[in-house]
Amino acid sequence: MPFNFFDLFSLSNILDIAIVSYLIYKAISWIRGTRAVQLLKGVFILVLVAIISNWFRLTTISWLLMQFQTVLFIALPLVFQPELRRMLERIGRGGFLSYRGILDQETLTRFNSEMIRAINVLSRNSIGALIVLERETMLNNYEETGITIDAIVTGELLVNLFEPKTPLHDGAVIIRGDRIVAAGCFLPLTENPNISKELGSRHRAALGITEVSDALALVVSEETGTISAVQEGRMTRYLDEESLHSILVEALSTDTKKQRFFPSFWR
0.70 cut: is pTM over it? Predict the structure, then answer.
């Protein structure tokens, strides 16, 4: 049977290549900026050495690398455990699942007003703050490290929680819906080796919690009063009132829920 070149470009082959390419792209984006990048570079170097040793018939090196393969297959899942866990969590959030943390339009308008009012006060007075807005991934484990509040979000309450020299000002505030569920919470710090040295523990904790969940974290710098927002391990700094409002609306409005029934392919 003669070979038909156009058989390679059938719809199933194109779809297969597109899906594999997308999965590789997403895998790279998930591990970018983490220690997994350095580990993958090490694995790549070992593979390259193995190819070269086979090419030049370096039998001793080839034998050593063959023995190392068994150890490597056992060690890799342990070494990449944080990245694998984060990948599976993101796959689980990918579509057709419940979506908590959204607010109807009326509640969102009031919530945004209170949040922005509080953050502006904190920023003007250079009062350090870390506010975590829970979305789909529940943050119960981190909520339990703090003090239960269970109160409607108001500007005055948020400012008071972060007032210097008060018992709860050093920890994070966790918000579920339009309620403050806990304050003084401890969050995991990021393992990203490439973040700026000028970022303190609040910013590192904001990056850390968004690396293991889909939460939105808002940070006010104690040194400069700079406002930052963090999502999916990516930080946007030097926010003004308008940009902060846009981020809150995008993260918490019911319109976002409609979009998530069909997960964005290019996101």
Answer: no
